[in-house]
Specification:
single chain; about 150 residues; alpha+beta; 4-stranded antiparallel beta sheet; 6 helices; about 40% helix; elongated
């Protein structure tokens, strides 16, 4: 990947609906080589897909929680079971493997505090193998960027 590919990626991160003609002009390429580069970035998995950014509150998901999970055990079966189950929970938008005191950090969105309690009691706690759950609620967002820093 070269600087031109990075320019293409940053432009598409800003506006994924940009036409190839506009993208080519933005990164100072002619349309044909620009499209070739985009297709190659898609084929090699650098560009994983395209999606719409949606305001969670406007969608009806007013609560964003950051959930820190520590597992009781770290054997292969416990870890694989946890990760497989988390992958199937649509309330969990992100799951990161962490260093330090926390094994995983989840970003969870739900419509209310009652819905969050139901999620914890009926979904998360039933997974088994969890040693502790610690939650922080976001009451505002200062920055939420999808554009990588320039290199």
């Amino acid at each position: 990947m070269d600087d031109k590919d990075r320019q293409i990626i940053r432009a598409l991160q800003r506006d994924g609906r940009m036409s190839n003609q506009d993208l080519a002009a933005t990164v100072n390429l002619s349309p044909s080589p620009c499209l070739r580069r985009v297709r190659n970035l898609e084929k090699t998995g650098v560009i994983e897909g395209y999606s719409a950014r949606v305001n969670a509150r406007a969608y009806g998901l007013a609560i964003t929680a950051f959930v820190h999970i520590r597992l009781e055990r770290h054997d292969e079966e416990t870890v694989q079971n946890f990760e497989r189950q988390i992958d199937g929970m649509e309330e969990v938008l992100e799951c990161h493997v962490m260093t330090g005191q926390t094994d995983y950090q989840l970003r969870v969105v739900v419509e209310s505090l009652d819905a969050y309690e139901r999620f914890i009691r009926t979904r998360l706690q039933r997974l088994g193998g969890i040693g502790s759950i610690d939650t922080s609620f976001a009451y505002g967002t200062i920055k939420n960027s999808t554009v990588f820093p320039a290199r």
